[in-house]
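Quick one: structure for this chain?
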Amino acid sequence: MFNHSPSPLVILFSIVQNSPMVARLNQDPRWEKTRQALLEGGRLIMAQKGVDAASVLEIVKAAKVSQPSFYNHFNSKEELAEVIAAKFFRADVTFKSRIFQTVKDPAEAIAINIRHTLKVATHDPVVAWVVVRGGSGRNLLRIGDSDQLVNMIITGIEKGRFRESTPRVLAEVIRAAAFPLLRNILQGTAPDNIEIQFAELVLLMLGIPVHEATEIARRPDPPFAEEGESI
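Got it. Here's what it folds into:
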């Protein structure tokens, strides 16, 4: 049998992290400056080498801070990657809301979101790595009080654009299909224009006619769509 009790070091770390001393440090501008340096250094190294290949030593060198300082802020490089991704997805909630409110055709709105989701693997591989890994990373896709992808599908059904279906199930199917595609892009094995091909397939699944799905999937993005990504 394995002993699943936390080790003394883990218990000690938890006590220290929740102590009044650490709370005071969190309010120190130097604390925030160090944390920001680690976030920027981590993003740089992980984007260059991938999260799995990056080391804490390389990250602290890029951030120009000491290695012990890293563990004052993060338990591991994986936690650092998730914090980087969480910042992205919090900003992305605003982007998704703007797409939903501005693009009146639900089919076009979903196509924009899908294309940008897959582009994450090229433009921000750290975020894509967190999503592909699953767990809490996938939960980041649902930050906010409502699920905009589900809302887009509901609106499309109500407007007669999409066939009758269960919106939440469809949203989960779309996301589940996107994860292996993100992995393929990260690994360099995805075909060219995979984001357009996937957007077209999703529109076909929603009931959009073939010729229209092809045209919508290839429409240029609205100018503000360059500001955010992800479904």
